[in-house]
Structure formats: structure tokens, C-alpha cells
Amino acid sequence: MDNVVSAETYKLDALVVGAGFGGIYSLHKLRNEFGMNAVAIDRAGGVGGTWYWNKYPGALSDSEAFVYQYSFDRDLYTDAPLRNKYVRQPEILSYINGVVDRFELREHIRLETGMTGASFDERTGTWSVSTDRGITYEVRYLITGLGLLSATHMPQIDGIESFKGTVVHTGAWPEDLDLTGKRVGVIGNGSTGNQVITATAPIAGHLTSFMRTPQYSVPAGNRSLSADEEKAYKEKFDSTWEQVRNSSVAFGFTESAVPTFSVSAEERERVFEEAWTEGGGFRFMFETFSDMATDADANEEAARFIRKKIAEIVKDPETRKNLTPTDLYARRPQCDSGFYEAFNRPNVSLVNIKENPISRLTEDGIVTADGTVHELDVLVFATGFDAVDGNYVRVDIAGRGGETLKQHWKDAPTSYMGIATSGFPNMFMILGPNSPFTNLVPAIESQVEWIGEAIKIIEGSDTQWIDVKPEQEAKWTETCTEIANATLFPKADSWIFGHNIPGKKPSVLFYLGGLKNYRAVVSEELKLGFPNFTTDSQLSVGV
């Protein structure tokens, strides 16, 4: 039971904000493994984090199912069904709910409860966290799993209030919205827009894609797994997760060590064709050749192959031109279940809004610069998120000396290891700024396990809190920037650098050094007893 201080204040050991993969594992570790008095809150009406909100048609993981789940419990892994190569949103949500019930966490989760503010008391070493339910939590440890992709971005379009149809963002999809037979407009063609368009095209009366920048996409290759395949995956539990933790992107395959131009043109074509047939965006970028993300000529070889495929698939010349990228293949790798094929359907059209911008919305639909009225029943914004720091700076979080996180990050969001930020003691982030750019569940587990060990050490010592040294946070930012600049990724306008948010200064938001290297860094920090942190008193317990 919570320790009630007053009718509206609860005193706990720890508060976990967020009930996605990170929040659920954190709550399990704190309560079930450490016996701490901890509670999780989430503004959603159910658990699942991103997968609770993103109920749009076609929502699918782009990590393969056998590595898009927890690895901290072998029995949990063995008991979870493994039916398809990739996992659909309803299956992911069902899985997370099953984990919550399996580990008896539900009664310790407060849903429809959002954090509205938090402040740190340096004298007592505690956080006071306010919520939109009028409840305040006083805690020693604040663990924030606010979501990497959960602060939705809605572009401003003149006249949107006059539109008589339905306006929806993919990141807040209502369960009762049926697009069958409707005139549907989709703005955006990143991973989400790609999935929405592909899934909606066969059922819509008419679908119009409003596309600014065409992107590279390869087939997902999703398919059912046989009983023998499922059995084999589960029997390889140890070797699978050993490989994942010692890899770069952590997607369950061995990254290529073969340079693109070390083989013949014929061999390159064969490798690309094999990867196209197998499917998977990360496989295509990282399993084929070793230098696609770092060498512009190698990158162009892969881009040329995908452009050739688009030319073979898309029948209408004008549509083909508008769907064909000409820039670097250097955004988050996309995969699809028939995206390009969808534009061959007679009920699907494409508007190039770079050449013919959206002027305004009327009660009937979108008006483009050429004066055309595109009549719509439903307008879907697949316009992404204010990634990484969006949910943090929308809440007043004040650390030492009253400095807010928004002030601390006024130039760019920063952290040390994606877990801690200077001036905010005992606030541990899951997937904070400059966390690993990998398959997210293994990265989440690595961070939650570090946070758990750190809390255990603090609890066994004379200190009340730890706080990362400012100079170490700056060094981590420099490291992340140096690694990013050694790749081609910063050369493409992308949400992974914040380019999708008007007025937001682009910055490095991820550690691109790979999961193996990241795990070595966080392990060393624990092993050496927090050398890059300060404390309110000297830690007396070694690691």
C-alpha cells in the first residue's frame, strides 16, 4: 500500500512515469526484485505506452518479433507466442498487458494520471511530483519513461477549424474510427504514414497522399512463422540475446563486415536482391554491407537499387517520379507491406506538396496552391513526434537551484548515457537524449538494469542522491556528436535530429555507437563506483 501523508500526498520510495516497455520493467524491478514501495503513473487509459496510443491501421513493429520483447525472464520469453516475423500493434499491446498481469503489477499502476510538474528538494533529497489528478507523490527516485515517440506533432494549417470531417493524428488514434469507404487524406510518409497508406488503400473509397519528401523503403517481408521456427527461436534464447547485446543495432542479425566495393557489381546486386526478398529495413541497411551508413558512394549503390525497384513497381510515370527519392538513403530505415504497390490502385492518388503546397483547409477538405479542392471525410496527420525531449519540456521539471529542464536544455537536449542529466539528482531517464539508436527493447533493458543497480547501491550507502557532473554530460554530448558526424545520417533532414519540428534547433539526439559499446560504457560507470557523478556525501559502498 502507498504511504499516505495526506489526502492528496503519497510518500514512496520511487515513482515511475510511463507504463510502456521501460516503465513496466522498471516497476517490476523496483517492486518485485528490490521490494521497494514504487508506483507507476501514465496519462493513458491503459498500459503499453506508444503501443496504447498508436492504434492506426497497419501499425507494426519494425524489429522482428523474436527480439521485440523482454529478455530479462527466460520463462516469459518461452511462454510468449511467436506467430509472425513482425508484431502488430494489438499483439504488442496484448503482450505488455500479459507481462503486467504475470508480475502482478496492475494494482500499482495509476492510469489516466499525468505528471504536471516535479521539483527536487536538495535538503531532503526528494522529488515532489504533481499530477493532473490532484495527487502529489514525494519520492527519493524519479524514473521517467515518457516515451521516445509520444509527444505528437501537429502542423498548423489555416482553416483547420472549419473542416467538417474528422481530423486525427496517428499517435492518438481513436478505436472506433473506421476508414472503410471514406475519402481519406494522409499527410506524411515516414514509417507511420507508410503503414497507414498501405493498410488504408485497399479499404478507402479514395486515398490521397500529401507527400513532401519521398523516402526509401524496402519490403518488410512479414509472414507467419511455423511451429518449428517458433520452437527454434525459443531454444536459441541464450545465443540470441548474447548476440543482440554484443551487436550494434541489436536487431537479431549479424551486421555485415564487408565493404560495398570489395565485391563485384554482380555480387552487390545479388546481396541487395537477397535482402530485398528477405525483407527488413535495418537488415537492408546493416546486414548487406558495412559502409552504407558511412560512405556516400556505397550509400548511393543501395539507393540506386531501391530506385530501380520503385521504377519496376510504380506504373504511372508522374506518380513514379514523385515517389522516387534522389537524396541520401540516410534516414531511419523503412520497410513496408506493399507501399509502392498501393499507388497503382485506381483509388489512390499522390499530391507533391513541395511543388504544390497545401494552402488551407475548408469545410470540404484540403486546398492546394493550384486551387484544387481535395474533398475529404478524414484527414490523417502522420506527421510524427517531437522526439526524445518533447514530453520532457512540456512539463515543469525543476532540479537543483530551481533550474527547469527546459532551461537546462535551452540549446539542445543533453544527458549522460541517455539516463541522467546534470542538476537533476536521482532522476533517471529511460531513452533520454542521446540514448542508443537501436532496437529499443534491448536498449531499454540495458538502461533499466543500470538504473536498478544504481538505486541498489545508493540504498546501501550513506548518500541520498547522485548527480551527473556537468563536464561529463558535455563530454557525452561531444562523443555522440563525433560519432554521428562520422556517418551520413546528419546529412539528411530527419526526425532523429529534430528536423521535423519547426523552430527546433537540430541537434544530435542519439548515441550511434551501437549497443555493445553503449553497454560497455554504462557497465564501466557502475564498476568504478560512479566516477562521473557527484553525491551529497561520499559513497561508502563499493560496486
From TrEMBL:
Query: What is the protein named?
Result: NAD(P)/FAD-dependent oxidoreductase
Please indicate if the UniProt record lists Lipid metabolism as a keyword: no
Tell me which stretches of the chain form a coiled coil.
none
Q: Which PANTHER family did the record assign?
A: DUAL-FUNCTIONAL MONOOXYGENASE_METHYLTRANSFERASE PSOF, L-ORNITHINE N(5)-MONOOXYGENASE-RELATED
What the entry lists under InterPro entries is as follows: FAD-binding_Monooxygenases, FAD/NAD-bd_sf, Flavin_mOase-like
Q: List all membrane-crossing ranges.
A: none
Q: Which UniProt keywords apply?
A: FAD, Flavoprotein, NADP, Oxidoreductase
Keyword Flavoprotein recorded: yes
Q: Which family does it belong to?
A: Belongs to the FAD-binding monooxygenase family.
